[in-house]
Amino acid sequence: MMSLNKNLILATGVIILLAFSRIIPHPPNFTPILSMAFFAGAILDRRLFAYFVIISSMLISDLYLGFHSSMLVVYFAISLSVLLGTIIHKRLNIINGLLGISGSVLLFYLITNFAVWYGSGMYTNNLQGLIECYILALPFLQNTISSTMLYSLLAFSVYYLADKYINFRLKRV
Fold first, then answer.
1. What is the pLDDT of residue 129?
2. What total of structural domains would you count in the chain?
3. Whose C-alpha in 24, 97, 152, 156 is 20 to 30 A from the C-alpha of 44?
């Protein structure tokens, strides 16, 4: 098992890499946001730090990208992804990881699109308007699923490979 400092450094490094990839050009909703949130909760032993590093990363990248009126809703949904990661922290495996990542995507889709329906004025304020909002958001959901799976695979792979490589290098010195 990794030491706490090594774990913290490796995980934070992966999260920072993911956060930087948020500011490069990408298709709508094809971002590492949910991946880095779930990853932080699943890997970091210090739960408050997991929330802190995710919200800080988001704020820093939003300084560059610009602030928007639905930030609080987005940050709340992202915090739920961190929470899902912390729930499976001690039982992290491929199945639990896939379930947690899928849950993160579903919660983000439901919460953020509910906020769009409720607050944007683009849809009628009834069940039909809500259903229309969710249906019209399906192309964005497809990108969110694809990017979250891809970035999660990347994050966990880089983290575990770095851990293995660093352990190997330390033993040889």
1. 98
2. 1
3. 24
State the distance between the two ends of the chain, measured CA to CA, in whole angstroms.
Answer: 19
pTM metric for this prediction: 0.88
The Cα angle at residue 46 between residues 40 and 51, in degrees rounded to 5: 50
What's the domain range around 106? 4-157
Residue 171 lies in a domain: no
Secondary structure of residue 27 in the 3-state scheme: coil
Helices 33-43 & 138-172 angle (0-180, nearest 10): 40
CA distance 25 to 149: 18
pLDDT value at residue 149 = 97
Q: Which is nearest to 121 in space by CA: 112, 111, 129, 109?
A: 129
DSSP label at 45? Answer: S
| Separation between Cα atoms, residue 162 and residue 10, nearest integer Å | 7
pLDDT at 170: 44
CB 50 within 8 A of CB 112: no
Q: Which residues contact 4 (CB under 8 A, 6 or more apart)?
A: 45
Contact 23, 61 (CB under 8 A): yes
Of 60, 56, 50, the C-alpha closest to 80 is: 50
Residue 3's pLDDT is 55
Which stretches of the chain score pLDDT less than 70?
1-4, 167-173
